[in-house]
């Protein structure tokens, strides 16, 4: 490299179509540099890829594919692994086709979508607050979305109402938490304590609503109180399938801002970040994803804690693992729902209970380990 910086190397190395090995040699340590010539552009286009983050995402993707295949084969009626792939395309035994296409595949897709949404929302909130306890479930956003979704089921009884009401509830809970933490912003434990209080109030409202209605109506609203993929509103799943790519794409676009948000506001502003504007954008994406996920599966909040923790432990500490958090959240959700279906089959354990059993000790571990290893 003759003493040149990585940026100088990008300008001096010849770049052709696709990957350029000479340019890659000038990439910073721990990165790959992918460079290409686009159209009639004079200067080459290039992008730096963090090796560890890429490998972590690849590992989580492979794990998710393996878990998804196990999800389709296992259940009260087990399928032979060789029968799953033909059933996906409508071939083979009619019972296998029915089990895969009508029962398990839609539920698997819902698990992947909701897990990814909870994982990304948790990663965003943790980065925003610089605290690994600041997940949507712990700071009350999940409970706010749940209370409004339950109110819509009790009062309206239509499948398209819970998604919209869940978004309103998530927004209301976030606004209340910010208001009660006035002066402390999103940093420190004041924000966490305010969120816990808001979540407790909305949780009590949910229980009060269920106590005042007929038992059949309460049973219809029950999945939104514990977290379950057994009763998935088709309209809510469709909205989440549209909203998740938008939210994930926005979060990836905000990756550089998220990296700077881990510093103090003064440092981030000095590096050119519009702190207030980016903070509201991050919060809006987190609320959107949480509301849509709750409208499908209910408050499975600890996925937003476990998923980002897994992603952070596998990924590079240099960046914010948004994509890895989405994949890890989806993996946790699929495995939790699979465990709920098969452990006591034919009795089904709601996925929210499974994640609570796993996430509770994880939360205690975060609280009890040395403070130097926390974001707070």
TrEMBL record:
Keyword Nucleotidyltransferase: no
Membrane topology: Multi-pass membrane protein
Keywords from the UniProt entry: Cell membrane, Membrane, Transmembrane, Transmembrane helix, Transport
Gene Ontology terms: biological process: siderophore-iron import into cell
Ion transport among keywords: no
Compartments where found: Cell membrane
InterPro entries the record matches: ABC_BtuC-like, ABC_transptr_permease_BtuC
Family label: Belongs to the binding-protein-dependent transport system permease family. FecCD subfamily.
Protein name: Iron ABC transporter permease
The organism of origin for this protein: Billgrantia desiderata
